[in-house]
Amino acid sequence: MSGLRLMAVHAHPDDESSKGAATTARYAAAGHRVMVVTLTGGERGDILNPAMDRPDVHGRIAEVRREEMARAAEILGVEHRWLGYIDSGLPTGDPLPPLPDDCFAMVPLEESTEALVRVVREFRPHVMTTYDENGGYPHPDHIRCHEVSVAAFEAAGDYRRYPDAGEAWTVSKLYYNHGFLRERMQLLQDEFARNGQVGPFAKWLEHWNPDRDEFAARVTSRIECADYFGQRDDALRAHATQIDPNGAFFTAPIEWQQRLWPTEEFELARSRVPVTLPETDLFTGIEDNG
Ligand SMILES: [Zn+2]
Known about the structure:
7 strands, single chain
């Protein structure tokens, strides 16, 4: 067993399977310890799969999502921890309604940071991944996931901070997930056309927010993980209430994805070890000394 450990912090159950999933599966398969930490229970997620939109599922959505998450973690080969906060939901409308009082985004940052620091000091990851300051997409829990992960990365190694949350542990590197790239989507869309089919991404590409193009320029690290795309898709399908197996995500054959875009992308946001960018391994620069 390798001494290196990777912790992927995510807002909701299913995020670990749609952002950097093949990378976590790759490192787990290589014998590293990989832990996914899910901050909320996903209780306010909509049921996005028509086949699962049933009264018996609605009545026990929190429980269903725990079962789905356990299955996804098993498929990816990763360890899993819940931080236990309640999904904030994605507010819609103009003006936006206030967030529910009991939700994760309303928990004081100091409090949720301490909870994450406790898990960091216990698992002692060398590398953490999270979302960028935009949350990847503007869900209040995703923004909060960024804030709490950065705060925990900063605080975990300082014995004066949260002295009751375990022995200090310094995480070497912090990354942001950057998987949602226009170039990748365009390549797949073009491949459909080359095969005489109409790809499912036309609307996405047409309405692409140009502000999002800056994310491609922020990528520092491309992790080859094509062999794990099958596991990634199986893990995603395990979140049956959230994922329509007939949705656009699954229409591009895995062989195309493996050939055209065999990597997942990350941005090195903080490093306490010397690095040379770009890089192809999240653990580059870290010594394996247990
Ligand atoms: Zn999410």
